[in-house]
Structure formats: C-alpha cells, structure tokens
Amino acid sequence: MTPSGGTAVPAQDHVFLVVLENHSFSQVIGSPSMPYLNSLASQHGLATNYFANVHPSIGNYFMLTVGAIETVDNTFTGIITDNNIVRVLTASGKSWKAYLESVPSQGYLGNDVSPYLKHHNPFAYLSDVVNSSAQAANLVPFSQLSADLASGKLPNFAYILPNAQDDAHDCPGGALICNDSDLLTAADTWLKNNIDPLINSPAFGNSVLIITWDESVLTDLANVGGQVATVLVGPRVKPGFRSTVQHQHQDTLRSILQALQVSNMPNAAATANSMGEFFQ
Fold first, then answer.
1. Pick from 165, 102, 100: nearest CA to 138
2. For the domain that residue 81 is a member of, what is the CATH number?
3. For the whole model, what pTM was predicted?
4. Within a domain: residue 251?
5. Would you say residue 247 lies in a domain?
C-alpha cells in the first residue's frame, strides 16, 4: 500500500477511466503496435512507476472501484458490500455510468456473454448496483457514450470498458491464435477510433482521462501485480510529463474521487497517494 500524501488532484467536471488488459509497461510503452497510446503518453502524462496490485484480473478491478482486492477468483459470483465508488459518488450528488462494449443490454448483471466479460466490470458485483434498478441502469452499452457526448449528458465519472477482443485480452475478431502485436494493435485502434473523438470534443473541457492496464503479464510480480502503463490526458495535465512516483490502483481511485471533490475515500484509497503531480 502506498502511503497517504501527494498533491491533491484539481477539481474536474468529468473523469473518464479506460482499463486495458494483461500487458507490462515494457510491452506497451515504445511499442510500434500502439502508436496512438504512445502518442498520448508522450504528449500528456505517463506514470513510469505504476504497478497493479495482484494477479489475476478481478482483484485489480475491485481495487480501482472499491479500494480493496476482495477476491482473486475470476469466476467469483458474490456481491460486494464494502464501501465503493458508486456509494460515495451517489452520496456526493455525482453522476456515473459504465460504458460497456458488447454488454447484452442496459442494466445487465449476468455472466459472461463473449466478448463481454463480467469480471472486467466490477460494478456488476456491487450491492449498491445489484440491489438498485436505478443504479443498474447506469450500466449501459458502449454506444451510449457517443450519444451522451453529443447531447451534453456525460456523467461526472465514466468507466469505459472495451470488450475482450478490443482490450488486448483476446485475439481480435474471435481468432483462436494471434500474435501479441495483433492484441496491441487492436487495442490501439480501438482507442484511436473511440477515445480520440472524446478527447477532441468541446465537451471534454475541464476533464481528465485515465488509461491504465488491469495487470501486467503473469510472470511480472513486481509489487505483486507487475508494472503497467498508465496515461493521464486532459487540459490541466502537464504536457509531456513523466511521473516517477510509485502508484497503484488505489491511487487512481483516490485521484478520481479527489478530481470530483468527493471526500469519502473507500478502503485503501483513504491512505493512498493522489496523482496530483500530473496536473498544472
């Protein structure tokens, strides 16, 4: 766990979080297969000392939203009752949505329907969502993002999840075998096609986008979950900034909530470092 401290993140109107899958920092940064992500990293902010919390995936998704690992079982079927991002955002009068590529329907809480994977969507396990049809309605198909962007109805916090063929987890197009470069190229193309319009929209305004990876490769055990690439983009992010401060996913959770001026920090977020050094 990182110690409490760090410069506070300045207030933002919107925070967008994109989570990609299962690659190390060294596989991603400088990769010719990811020119778009690397362009964002070079022009905006890059965390050069950022580590996931655990292997496999699911615990990292919970750390990003609950501030606790909760489980290391990707087949987990329980309900999480801990304090979490939905609870504290709602209590603070802040809006949220999870934009989920390939989710079967709005409010879907069920199991995997490939290429949608439930354990990449931590909101589907939270008691605050499972037990509230109004909150569950914030789980929406990814296509809703462009509609909300166009209509000026973006939430304060947006969780953006590519499907498993677009997040570098599975082979693109449903292929059974592919090269790692194919995984990265597919993820980079998805980012360029879907995230670039968001960044360049007037609605992005006073906002910050965080792109991170759930975990590194399984053989990378540095700080348990391995080193991953994390990029921050926004008008108030220092151009070309490189942070050498050690961060983990609880720091991202703390920073999201600070940016939205929410003071209730769930679990490990309460003693985490903010990522304020990225901002002007």
1. 100
2. 3.40.720.10
3. 0.97
4. no
5. no
